[in-house]
Amino acid sequence: MEFGHYTPYIAGAFGFTALVLAALILHGWRDGRAQKRALAELQGDQR
């Protein structure tokens, strides 16, 4: 597959997209862990 002189733009777009997706996945994973800790703390306070 030949992209010609558009290769830097295409590679940059794919790279930027990969970084954004990785950041979203990492944020979701970290937020999920924080929510589980908060829920466990709230459940522990009620007992």
Question: What is the C-alpha radius of gyration, as a whole number of Å?
Answer: 20 Å
- Report the span from N to C terminus: 63 Å
Order of helices and strands: H
Largest sheet: none
In round numbers, the mean pLDDT is: 92
Q: Count every helix, treating DSSP H or I runs of 4 or more residues as helices.
A: 1
Helix content: over 70%
Quaternary structure = single chain
Overall SS class: mainly alpha
Shape: rod-shaped
Give the percentage of residues in beta strands. under 5%
The tally of strands reads 0
What low-confidence regions span 5 or more consecutive residues with pLDDT below 50?
none
Question: Topology, please?
Answer:
Blueprint: H1 7-46
Keywords: Cell inner membrane, Cell membrane, Cytochrome c-type biogenesis, Membrane, Transmembrane, Transmembrane helix, Transport
Function: Required for the export of heme to the periplasm for the biogenesis of c-type cytochromes.
InterPro entries: Haem_export_protD_CcmD (IPR007078)
Question: What would a concise description of this structure say?
Answer:
One of its GO terms (biological process) is heme transport. With 47 residues, this protein is mostly helical.
